[in-house]
Each structure stands twice: as structure tokens, then as C-alpha cells.
UniProtKB/TrEMBL annotation:
Coiled coil start-end: none
Record keyword Zinc present: no
Protein name stated in the entry: Two-component system OmpR family response regulator
GO cellular component: cytosol; protein-DNA complex
Residues annotated as domain Response regulatory: 31-145
Gene Ontology BP annotations: regulation of DNA-templated transcription
Residue ranges: DNA binding: 157-254
Taxonomic path: Bacteria, Bacillati, Actinomycetota, Actinomycetes, Micrococcales
Pfam families registered for this protein in UniProt: Response_reg, Trans_reg_C
Record's keyword annotation contains Transcription regulation: yes
Modified residues (4-aspartylphosphate): D80
Gene3D superfamilies per record: 3.40.50.2300, 6.10.250.690, Winged helix-like DNA-binding domain superfamily/Winged helix DNA-binding domain
Length: 256
């Protein structure tokens, strides 16, 4: 089977360290959809995620994943790229077309930067390469959930305003000049970081650390990619608010 690592505590039950449980906004259990054609692997993942008190459904192929996505309405998805019928990139594309914006963590044996960027370009939010540790995967999912629609705002004032751009951290709504803008969880977190620091230049390294909590082998390609996504949604047809400072990073400021 594909190699997965985990320590004894993760496999057997609670550790002596305090653990903060994450719940949905309505107090119910987080819903996770795990998609992989290796039954032993999905069993291990389900066990680790049940320990987080999350509700877990598993799928072994792309068609089953799409059906469960519509019926189960997961809060986060673990999705293998290599599936026996349709690949994970197509599954994610169809999920997004169905209106499902749940954060997606790709799970794959591929390890090239091109594969990582392909997954993120398709609308994914994170990437774990096999072999992996269950502790790392759970930590990544918890990070995605904190940035997702189920997350509770951790800022004193939930409404951020820069010019005619408004972001509500409680409702996860974004408007520019009164017009609603739909963002993925990662796009929302990137915009929130920029808006919490208006007129301040943020380096690619700072953005990687804050938005993704780790880097992609030191590559800045992911930041550039998501900045371009934001520009298409925030600045398209309007005076630009997201600016590149050559050699330094990016900033947001009110349009002139």
C-alpha cells in the first residue's frame, strides 16, 4: 500500500496535549469527504479524522465523490488526483461547477511543482504529497477550515473596509462598490491579509507564511497565481486596488 506515517498517539487515541476541537458554525460536526481508491488509506484517514470528532464519508472513485459532494455537502475535501475513472482535477472542476466551494486538499504521489500548480489552478487550496504523516494532513485541514466559511472570525472588528472594498469576516462576504464578489477560501484569506494591512507592501514570503502557513519549496508561483485570481475578481473593469511593488511584494489600497 502507499506509505502513510503516524505516531502511536495519533493512531490510538487522545494525547496528553490539549486539543481544540473545531465545529461548524451551527455547532454540528465538521464534514470531511475523503476520496482515494486505496481502501486501507481511506480507513486510516477516516480513523484520524474521527478522532477530531469530524463526520467522515469516503469515496473510491470520481463519480462516487461527485455524488457524495452533492448529498453530503462536505466542509472540506481530501482528494487524490489519481483515480480509476476520472482524475481528481476533473472531479474538482465539476464540484466547482456544481457550486461547491469547500476547501480541497489534494493528495497525490506526484511531487513536481508543475503538478502542485496544476492542482491549485484547478481550484484546490492545498497539496500533500505521498508519503505523508497523518498529523501533517490533519494540521493542514484544520488550517483550511479556520479559513473556510465554517471559521469563526478572530478579529475584533469583523468588517474590513478599504476604499469601496468591504470584507466581512463573520459572514465571509465580500463587496466592491456594493457588488458581491465570490471568493474561494484561499482567495478570501489572501484578500483578508492584504486588507488587514492596507497600503503596506507584503512580501511573497510573508504571504506564503500567513496564508498557506508553509511554502512550496520556496517557490513564489503560488502567490503570483492567487494574486492574479484576486485581480480578475476584485479589479476587473474597475480602477485597480491590488498593486505590485516590483522586487518587494504586493499591497492593497483605495482606488484613485
Amino acid at each position: 500500500m502507499r506509505k502513510v506515517t503516524m505516531n502511536a498517539r495519533a493512531a490510538s487515541g487522545p494525547s496528553s496535549q490539549p486539543r481544540t476541537l473545531l465545529r461548524r458554525a451551527d455547532g454540528s460536526a465538521i464534514r470531511v469527504l475523503v476520496v482515494d481508491d486505496e481502501a486501507t488509506l481511506t480507513d486510516l484517514l477516516a480513523m484520524a479524522l474521527h478522532y477530531e470528532d469530524w463526520e467522515v464519508k469516503t469515496a473510491s472513485n470520481g463519480q462516487q465523490a461527485l455524488q457524495l459532494s452533492r448529498e453530503f455537502k462536505p466542509d472540506v475535501v481530501v482528494l487524490d488526483i489519481m483515480l480509476p475513472d476520472i482524475d481528481g482535477l476533473q472531479v474538482l472542476s465539476r464540484m466547482r461547477a456544481d457550486g461547491n466551494e469547500a476547501p480541497v486538499l489534494f493528495l497525490t504521489a506526484k511531487d513536481s511543482l508543475d503538478d502542485r500548480i496544476a492542482g491549485l489552478t484547478a481550484g484546490g487550496d492545498d497539496y500533500v504529497t505521498k508519503p505523508f504523516s497523518l498529523e501533517e494532513l490533519v494540521a493542514r485541514l484544520r488550517g483550511l477550515l479556520r479559513r473556510s466559511r465554517a471559521a469563526v472570525a478572530d478579529h475584533d472588528d469583523p468588517v474590513l473596509i478599504v476604499g469601496d472594498l468591504v470584507l466581512d469576516e463573520d459572514s465571509y462576504e465580500v463587496h466592491r462598490d456594493g457588488e458581491p464578489i465570490q471568493l474561494t477560501a484561499t482567495e478570501f484569506e489572501l484578500l483578508r491579509f492584504l486588507m488587514r494591512n492596507p497600503r503596506r507592501v507584503l512580501s511573497k514570503a510573508q504571504i506564503l507564511d500567513r496564508v498557506w502557513s508553509y511554502d512550496f519549496g520556496g517557490s513564489s508561483s503560488v502567490v503570483e497565481l492567487y494574486i492574479s485570481y484576486l485581480r480578475k475578481k476584485i479589479d476587473a473593469g474597475r480602477a485597480p486596488m491590488i498593486h505590485t511593488v516590483r522586487g518587494a511584494g504586493y499591497m492593497v489600497k483605495a482606488a484613485q
